[in-house]
Design brief:
Length: 540
């Protein structure tokens, strides 16, 4: 990667904390694109469309931003001058709009690219029929995409060229400078202190996959007419948002499935101050919500706890991904357990919230008559797991339905457990609204052995930490001087400790050797932990 200013720039700055994660993904070959579409007026020429695109896109610095490293090896963003666009053209007689969209959706960006935006046109002779703008997620998030699409539609409809006050919001470079050395730096410092304490109490994972380092993808889709009124009505009852209600049901289901006393689900936060609310940039944060479920709380209690924790996290979202990785790495080394990504929820308002709400009576009537529309489960491909994924749920709240997509690791979750994470939220909320609350025992009875399952003999627990007994044993026995291993969780003054009983023929094997050997193998994708104590017996 470039280690200096990559070409002419208007200005540069550090990365916004949220942007660091998307930049890190680009560096590791993970490219996500955010698409916008616009249909020009019939008969529009290439020249006219190019002019309108400049009018719509040029004001936003994030759309002409690239990345590089400074002399100390830290990432920086570089804003380039306004320049003409390179536009991919596809003949309407040979390529459909859907094919162009698919092409740009999967066109990979890298952290070394000089531009992180691509534009395509479907043309019919001298006229342009359709335009697709593809932008790397590293410089635009969901909220920024909404603002950009509104701007594109406004300009192409001929409704003025002047930016509104909201559209002229701070640029990402302004936010980044403020976050690192300006008014927002206090928020960042407070966030670092909060996350140091928070991560110390997080479980390393909720599930131990049968094989480490592998994802067996199950791609699923769910749509329901009933989930929308259920979410809105429950949100009103608890004076919170549908997003918090939905996340609470996933926390409840994850707690039931895993049996964990402390449940962590990662979820998306907007990551913007009011002044940044309409900026075109990448601000969103994916942060963990850790909730105490050890007392087997009712669903209403879980909603209240998620509300409180979401409030805490929202007040401490100003944290850099790289700083968070450093805090996490320090905690992993101290605990001897790597943190898996686990379950992530991305709840998106596909339309403004006011378009999905109505009077309570109307919503209740809709809930009584509405049903699940579609549930599709399909197996996918196997691939390498780098982050310890159990499930990723992408949920869109639409004007009439809730539409969700799920990606699951079938090595961590059974088919019934996957189905419960898709369809279970609606079932829980129906019960809550009809009975006032749902106890832990009632929730278990609703799903029963289908999701709660029996005790897994390979599953080990050390306090809030979860590990695979077999894979941890295999990691220890991969040491050339170890003959055999037996693992036991033993109580020491009320504190659980993992003790490894080791047999060896070597006279020089020490606990320090074994600890270093295991620490080198820790990975979010492998449910392996480092024992607290080693009892070494020499044989032969």
């Amino acid at each position: 990667m470039a280690t200096q200013d990559p070409g002419a720039v208007v200005r540069s700055g550090p990365l916004v904390g949220a942007q660091e994660f998307e930049w890190w993904k680009l560096r590791h070959g993970i490219s996500t694109n955010v698409l916008s579409h616009v249909e020009p007026e019939a008969g529009s020429t290439r020249h006219t469309v190019r002019s309108l695109l400049h009018e719509a896109l040029d004001p936003f610095e994030s759309l002409r931003t690239s990345f590089g490293l400074d002399k100390e090896g830290r990432p920086r963003q570089y804003v380039h001058p306004v320049r003409d666009f390179e536009i991919v053209e596809r003949d309407a007689r040979k390529v459909s709009v859907e094919e162009l969209t698919e092409e740009l959706q999967h066109a990979a960006f890298t952290a070394e690219d000089a531009t992180l935006m691509r534009i395509g046109m479907v043309v019919d002779g001298p006229h342009v029929r359709y335009v697709v703008v593809s932008v790397s997620h590293a410089v635009i998030d969901g909220r920024g995409a909404q603002v950009l699409r509104k701007r594109l539609n406004s300009v192409f409809a001929g409704r003025g060229t002047k930016l509104t006050t909201a559209e002229a919001a701070p640029h990402p470079v302004d936010s980044a400078v403020s976050e690192h050395s300006g008014p927002l730096s206090r928020m960042r410092s407070a966030s670092l202190r909060f996350w140091e304490k928070e991560i110390a109490e997080m479980p390393n994972r909720l599930f131990a996959p049968r094989r480490g380092g592998i994802i067996e993808h199950y791609h699923s889709e769910y749509e329901s007419y009933a989930a929308r009124p259920a979410l809105v009505l429950t949100g009103r009852r608890f004076r919170t948002s549908p997003a918090v209600v939905y996340t609470s049901t996933i926390v409840a289901l994850a707690a039931l499935i895993s049996g964990s006393t402390t449940t962590t689900v990662r979820t998306h936060f907007v990551g913007r101050t009011p002044e940044e609310s309409d900026s075109v940039g990448c601000y969103h944060q994916i942060l963990p919500l850790t909730v105490d479920t050890g007392d087997q709380p009712s669903l209403s209690r879980i909603i209240e706890r998620v509300m409180f924790k979401a409030f805490q996290v929202q007040a401490r979202y100003r944290v850099g991904y790289l700083d968070l990785r450093e805090i996490t790495a320090n905690a992993q080394a101290a605990r001897g357990a790597a943190f898996a990504e686990g379950i992530t929820v991305n709840f998106d308002y596909a339309v403004p919230l006011e378009q999905v709400t109505s009077e309570d009576g109307v919503l209740t009537a809709e809930l009584e008559s509405a049903r699940e529309r579609e549930l599709l489960m399909g197996s996918g491909e196997s691939g390498a797991d780098l982050r310890g994924l159990d499930a990723y749920l992408m949920v869109h709240l639409r004007s009439t339905t809730l539409h969700g997509f799920g990606t699951f690791n079938s090595l961590s979750l059974s088919t019934e457990q996957m189905r419960s994470l898709l369809a279970g939220p609606e079932q829980l909320l129906r019960r809550l609204l009809s009975e006032g609350d749902v106890s832990w025992e009632a929730m278990r009875a609703m799903f029963g052995e289908r999701i709660c399952g029996t005790v897994n003999p390979d599953l080990g627990r050390r306090g809030v930490e979860v590990f695979s007994v077999g894979q941890t044993t295999a990691a220890l026995e991969s040491h050339p001087d170890v003959v055999a291993t037996v693992l036991r969780v033993e109580e020491n003054s009320g504190t659980p400790a993992l003790v490894a009983h080791i047999e060896t023929r070597a006279s020089h094997l020490t606990p320090e050797n074994l600890r270093a050997h295991i620490l080198r193998q820790l990975s979010p994708a492998h449910p392996v932990v480092c024992p607290d104590r080693f009892v070494i017996t020499r044989v032969g």
